[in-house]
Design goal:
about 35% helix, Rossmann fold, single chain, globular, about 290 residues
Length: about 290
């Protein structure tokens, strides 16, 4: 089992003919993802990677029956592209674009309210269900099918943990990069709810970092709602300096808020097994499953 995607998911790509989109969508197709077309305004009627190109998302959905989109549109236009996908009623939108203007994302968040769309990202490595579907830029050579669900704010750490869990012969049900930008779609709480409902997931891993409030929100959710499955977490940035941006836009610890130590304490107080080192995450998952 998996969450949000499966082998029948039909994917279009917004920004389809761009260099990065072409590279990653070609690999998604090779992986077995059902990519059914792309959207580039002004290029409708052409073909790219052997698939049709449309002028709008609405046209693409009507012609292909697509139910998911991968967004590779540059930052200045990405907000409008996301709103177009939401207005077209796509159930799932995955945005890999980084550094979309915050005010544009505020507009997107407002448009998401009451809509049928779940947004993953922006600044997301994507979503991957081993052997079923891959949307985004997540590497697809380390995974193996299994029953560990992963939700992460860090792309590189996701790859490391997927490899560790595969080495433990546990495998993954679905891996989701929720995105590192400060304003984003699906968060840790959404992922916990989805994984808890998924019969194919036996354990959930949260990979957090400094900045933002996803970890604290997850802790509050777990305190109010008893975890139905073991939850393991790791929070990067324990020794990061205050008030300095570390990496992408969401990883900044301002005036003592959003620090790793506070996030770790909140998660532990909610009953989460927190790994003390990135190298120990796979083993911590194994131990949590044994104790369940």
């Amino acid at each position: 089992m998996a969450i949000l995607i499966d082998s029948d998911t039909k994917v279009i790509c917004q920004g389809f003919t761009g260099k990065q989109a072409s590279y990653h969508m070609e690999r998604a197709i090779a992986y077995g993802t059902k990519v059914v077309g792309g959207v580039v305004p002004g290029k409708g009627g052409r073909r790219h990677l052997g698939l049709p190109v449309f002028d709008s998302v609405a046209e693409a959905v009507a012609a292909t029956g697509a139910n998911a989109s991968a967004v590779f549109v540059p930052p200045a236009s990405a907000g409008d592209a996301l709103i177009e996908a939401i207005d077209a009623g796509l159930p799932l939108v995955v945005c890999v674009t980084e550094r979309i203007p915050v005010l544009d994302m505020v507009r997107v968040k407002r448009r998401l309210e009451g809509s049928a769309t779940r947004l993953i990202g922006p600044n997301s490595q994507g979503i991957l269900s081993p052997g079923r579907c891959k949307i985004g830029v997540m590497p697809a050579h380390l995974e193996r099918p299994g029953k560990v669900g992963i939700a992460s704010r860090s792309a590189s750490l996701t790859s490391e943990v997927i490899e560790q869990i595969s080495a433990q012969r546990l495998g993954q049900s679905t891996s989701i990069g929720i995105g590192g930008d400060p304003v984003h779609g699906v968060g840790f709480v959404d992922c916990l709810e989805l994984f808890f409902q998924d019969p194919g997931t036996d354990c959930v891993v949260l990979l957090g970092e400094i900045g933002g409030s996803d970890e604290e929100e997850a802790a509050a959710y777990l305190k109010a709602n008893k975890a139905r499955k073991p939850v393991v977490a790791y929070v990067a940035g324990l020794h990061a300096p205050t008030e300095r941006r570390m990496g992408h836009a969401g990883t900044v610890n301002v005036f003592g808020q959003g620090g790793a130590a506070e996030k770790i304490e909140a998660l532990r107080s909610a009953g989460v097994s927190v790994a003390t080192s990135a190298a120990e995450i796979g083993q911590t998952v194994r131990q949590a499953l044994r104790a369940a």
